[in-house]
Amino acid sequence: MYEYIKGNKVSLTQDMVVIDVGGIGYLLHISLTTHNEIKDQDRPSIFVHLYVREDQMELFGFSSEVERNMFRLLIGVSGVGIHTARLILSACSPTEIQQAILSENIEVFKSVKGIGSKTAKRIILDLKDKVFKEYGMSIPEKSGMAQIDTDEAFNALVALGFQRQRIRKALNEILKKGESGTTTEKLVKSALKIMTGPK
Questions:
Q1: Quick one: which H or E segment has residue 5?
Q2: Domain range enclosing 156
Q3: Would you state the pLDDT for residue 136?
């Protein structure tokens, strides 16, 4: 129903933001990751997930499509509710969550308040195949790349009109090389070279 909301930021806390769009204030629940991304923006553009139950309707906001996609994967796991998923995304970046799932690192999830071994194992069991299919190969832990740069590069390339599958393939190719000191700008340029170069 909603894809994104862009408007004036009326108020912001670590777990929610109110955006004014044409005189209507939308309250969106957010993660700490999104909070940090939009705190210096007067008119943020926020991707939206509408959560609906019989007696409940809430909006959740995300600074990137990658984060929203991860949220949707997490809430599809039995025992992981909307607010638990938000806590996970506040404690870890989407890339860190991908790595934890693919490497079967339950300690990452157990470090989040309210998640025990059983739920951590279920997250990994339920999502490993889905994450591999969605994001491709595991990102090397010692690649030396800032994870936020990878997320930002992915979003920038999506905005340029490239297909997500091609972007993931290109970024994975770069990440496997393990180049150190790679910034968002360098990632984008390298990925563009791969995707637009001779086949």
A1: strand 4-6
A2: 147-196
A3: 58
Task: Please write the tens of the pLDDT for every residue from 97-136.
Answer: 988 898 888 888 988 888 999 999 999 999 988 888 776 5
Q: How confident is the model at residue 80 (pLDDT cuts 50, 70, 90)?
A: very high
Find all residues with CB under 8 Å of 149, minimum gap 6, and list them. Answer: 182, 183, 184, 187
Residue at 81 is within a domain: yes
Q: If DSSP codes are grouped into helix, strand and coil, which group holds residue 111?
A: coil
Q: Side by side, which strands form the sheet with 4-6?
A: 4-6, 45-53, 56-62, 24-29, 16-21, 8-12
Q: Which residues contact 129 (CB under 8 A, 6 or more apart)?
A: none
Inside any domain, residue 108: yes
Q: One-letter amino acid identity for 195?
A: M
Q: How far apart are CA 85 and CA 7, in angstroms?
A: 25
The answer to whether residue 140 is domain-embedded is no
This model's pTM is above 0.90? no
